[in-house]
Structures are given as C-alpha cells and as structure tokens.
TrEMBL record:
Listed Pfam families: ELFV_dehydrog, ELFV_dehydrog_N
CDD domains registered for this protein in UniProt: NAD_bind_2_Glu_DH
Name of the protein this chain belongs to: Glutamate dehydrogenase
Domain of life: Bacteria
Gene: gdhA
Entries under PANTHER family matching the protein: NADP-SPECIFIC GLUTAMATE DEHYDROGENASE 1-RELATED
Organism of this sequence: Clostridium tepidiprofundi DSM 19306
Oligomeric form and interacting partners: Homohexamer.
SMART domains the record matches: ELFV_dehydrog
GO molecular function (one): glutamate dehydrogenase (NADP+) activity
C-alpha cells in the first residue's frame, strides 16, 4: 500500500544528495496524514507522487568574461515545479551554495506559498552558483545578460515569471529584464517582477516580504492575546527581507536589537537605527560590522549564529535556510522567546520546528509568513497586464489584506484538522488542498 512514508523514501532515492529538498518534502508530508485520512484519493490517484516531481528541470551553462578579460563559467538553473493553479512563479537566487537540491527545495515550497496567496500562480524557482560578492557592476551586468540569453526561451508572462531572491535585487532584475527585452524585441513587463518603478515595477514590492512577515506575525500574536508593542525582536540577515521586517516592526513600536549578515551580527541595546543599516547594505553594499563606526554604543560579534543567544520575545530568521537548529531553538526558549516568524525560506530545521511546537511557541511558517513578496509580485503582474499603476497605499493595503487572509486560512485548516495553533500544519494543509484539487480536476498530466 502507498503511504506518505514510502513517497518520502522514493524522493530520497530518486534525488540523491539533495538534502534540502528531502527536508522540505519531509516537512510538508509530515502535516498531511490527517488530510489523507479524510481524502485517500490524493494518495490513491498519485497526486502526491506527481506533486514531489518537478514538471521540468532546466540546467544550463552561463559563460561570461570578467573585468580582466578572463573567461568565467557558472551553472544556471530553473525548476518549473507545478503549474496546476497558474504559471510558474518564483525567484532567482545567485549564491555560491546554489545547486539543484537548493533550487528544488525552494521551488517545492513555492507551490504551497503561492497557493496560500489566493492568487493564480504556480511554483518555480531558479538561480545560479554565481557569487555576486566582490564583483564589479559591469561583471554583474555581463553575468545577468549571459544568464538571460539562455533563460529567455523558457520563460514568459503566461509561462514562468522569475523574480529576486538572495543575491538578486532590483539591480540584477533590471539587467535581466533589459536583456530579455532586447532578445524578444517586446516590452513584456510581466515576464519578471521586482522591476524598478520607472519600467513596470510595483510600489511596495521592495518592502512586501518584510512588511508581510510582520503583518502575519501581528495577526498570529493577536489571535493569541499578544501584540507587537514593546516586544524585543532579533532579526537575522540584513538584506531585503530583514530590512523591511525591521522597518514595519519598528512602526508597530517593537524594539529590534540585533541584525546580522553572513559574517557576524550587531547588537544595539538602544534599538537598531535602520537608516544606518540601509546606507551600509543598500547603498554602500558593505559589511554590517560598519554599523559600530556610526553607533559606538553598539557591539559587533563575528559569529553570525550566536545572534540567537540574545534574549528576545520574537525571533525573525530572515537570512537563509537552516539558520536555527535544535541547539539555537533550545537557547531561544530558555531565554523566553514567545514567537518565531520565518522570513527566510526553511530557516528552522525540522527538529527545531518540532521542538518549538512541543513547547507551545507560536511559529509563523515561511510558506505563509513570507508569502507577501510573491503576492505583491502577482500584483505587479496584474498592474503590468492592465497597464496601470497603483499607489503605495493601494498595494500595501492589498498586501495587508492578503496576509490577514493567509493567517485565517492557516488557522482554520489547523483547527479543522485537529491541530489548533499549529500554523505550520495549517499552512501546509491549506496550501496543499487547493493545488491537489486543481491537479485532480486536470487529470493525469
Ligand atoms: P538578500 O540577498 O537581500 O539578503 C540575504 C541576507 O542573508 C544577507 O544579509 C546575507 O548576508 C544573509 N545570508 C545569506 N546567506 C547566508 C548564509 N549562508 N549564512 C548567513 N547569512 C546569510 O536576500 P533576501 O533578503 O531577498 O532573502 C532572504 C531570505 O528570504 C531567503 O531565504 C529568501 O529565499 C527568502 N525570501 C525572499 C523573498 C524576497 O522577496 N526577497 C521572498 C520570500 C522569501 P551577506 O550580505 O553577508 O551575504
């Protein structure tokens, strides 16, 4: 007899060495037992077998020439995971750690996240092992142009719509879009999201993932008789998600005392001065250690992971996957943490998630809590199609409503399936049901 356990074993055998992908599949399947009890047809009809197998995986060569005239080579990826509810949609990650297993974990997560937004977008993800650190602007442009010279044939505004992720911000999206437009000789703005405001971008897209995270955490706290006001918050990362999570948290009168980058973290007991972080990270593209030059009362520590030893009420991992393992989870709980909001994708190991839930810590899972970015990307696509431009307030209000409805969906599914307060299971189940039903309706394809 087919079981979820057997499906997981098959995923591990068929995708050897892709440990992040195995982890992501295990995390989702571990929530589906009660769903299968109620709806055995999802298992019997092979819906789950197909769900864990990408529809298409593209791997390509990305040659480019550096500033010294030397030829360089990277590997590019695009995994088009599931198009049951809409065209593939998901970001591009440029980081030396990227390999197929990372892109597949991200693409798999994206299926459920996109489903939760309530908008018609399927799941995909892409990227490259290219390291943008230390590269000149010209090198970044040449790399992006070469990457798009292959990718363009696989994407389209009704086919697959990439966006940013780690190492891919508005500068990179601009270069990618410029090359796409040149090859296609067509202003198809809807083919990429996260574009600049002067050429088809949306207001509030830059802020959306971080703001959305805080909107979700706010809903979760309020449903449990808590608020953000005067809470002490620690945020890992100082990139796009971390910066705008900090901004919105501060607007709700919470106090963010620490942020990090891949080298280390800063602790400012008086509260992080976000303007300084933005100047260092968004304008100068320097290390976070620079912060203490401007604020001498703050402290810098070399080890990024030790950020989780700081006493806080709310922890927001917004850097990368597996940032919080069981050891860090134990320290956070010992120090009195009440809530975790996952801004990054899969920032907690499965063991850490289990431990948080067993200890009744409120956990806002990434699929739901960081869905504001892709939701606003879908709003950008709508504006591009309609050739209109909503104001910042209009987009932000829509984002806020979407995050509230995602919280409601996760909360409702958790209650319906007998796990009230378990938003991890609730988000997995709510995201899964919509996609699984759409797959059933479309037959064996
Ligand atoms: P950025 O590239 O803007 O920032 C990433 C931040 O994380 C940087 O501070 C970076 O430090 C740090 N970081 C990256 N890798 C590591 C590592 N291995 N160890 C420790 N720190 C690391 O990326 P985003 O803010 O866009 O993305 C952050 C997370 O949020 C990712 O998990 C991404 O998948 C997820 N996400 C992003 C969305 C978006 O809209 N951008 C949407 C939904 C999820 P350094 O500068 O030193 O490299």
């Amino acid at each position: 007899m087919k079981t979820l356990e057997k499906i997981l074993q098959k995923v591990i055998e068929k995708n050897p060495g892709e440990k992040e992908f195995h982890q992501a599949v295990e995390e989702v399947l571990s929530s589906l037992e009660p769903v299968i009890k109620k709806h055995p047809e999802f298992l019997e009809e092979g819906i789950i077998d197909r769900l864990v197998e990408p529809e298409r995986q593209i791997i390509f060569r990305v040659p480019w020439v550096d500033d010294n005239g030397e030829p360089q080579l990277n590997r590019g990826f695009r995994v088009q995971f599931n198009s049951a509810i809409g065209p593939y949609k998901g970001g591009l990650r440029f980081h030396p750690s990227v390999y197929l297993g990372i892109i597949k974990f991200l693409g798999f997560e994206q299926i459920f996240k996109n489903s939760l937004t309530g908008l018609p977008i399927g799941g995909g993800k892409g990227g490259s092992d290219f390291d943008p650190k230390g590269k000149s602007n010209g090198e970044i442009m040449k790399f992006c142009q070469s990457f798009m010279t292959e990718l363009y044939r696989h994407i389209g505004k009704d086919i697959d719509i990439p966006a940013g992720d780690i190492g891919v911000g508005s500068r990179e999206i601009g270069y990618l879009y410029g090359q796409y437009k040149r090859i296609k000789n067509s202003f198809d703005a809807g083919v990429l999201t996260g574009k600049g405001l002067t050429y088809g971008g949306s207001f509030a897209r830059k802020e959306a993932t971080g703001y959305g995270l805080i909107y979700f955490v706010k809903e979760m706290l309020e449903a449990n008789n808590q608020t953000l006001k005067n809470k002490t918050i620690v945020i890992s990362g100082s990139g796009n998600v971390a910066i705008y999570a900090c901004e919105k948290a501060q607007q709700y009168d919470a106090k963010v005392v620490a942020m990090s980058d891949s080298k280390g973290y800063i602790y400012d007991k008086n509260g992080i001065k976000l303007d300084t972080i933005k100047q260092i990270k968004e304008v100068e593209r320097k290390r976070i250690s620079e912060y203490i030059k401007y604020h001498t009362e703050a402290k810098y520590h070399e080890c990024q992971k030790d950020i989780w030893s700081i006493k806080c009420d709310i922890a927001l991992p917004c850097a990368t996957q597996n940032d919080i393992d069981i050891n860090q989870a134990q320290v956070l709980i010992k120090n009195g943490v009440i809530a975790i909001g996952e801004g990054a994708n899969m920032p907690c190991t499965n063991e850490a998630i289990k431990f948080f839930l067993e200890n009744n810590i409120l956990l806002a899972p990434a699929k739901a809590a960081n869905a504001g970015g892709v939701a606003t990307s879908a709003l950008e696509m709508s504006q591009d199609s309609m050739r209109i431009c909503w104001t910042f307030e209009e987009v932000d209000n829509k984002l806020h409503e979407i995050m509230k409805s995602i919280f409601k969906a996760a909360d409702k599914a958790a209650k319906e399936y007998g796990m009230p307060g378990n938003y991890v299971a609730g988000a997995n189940i709510a995201g899964f049901l919509k996609v699984a039903n759409a797959m059933r309706a479309q037959g064996i394809v």
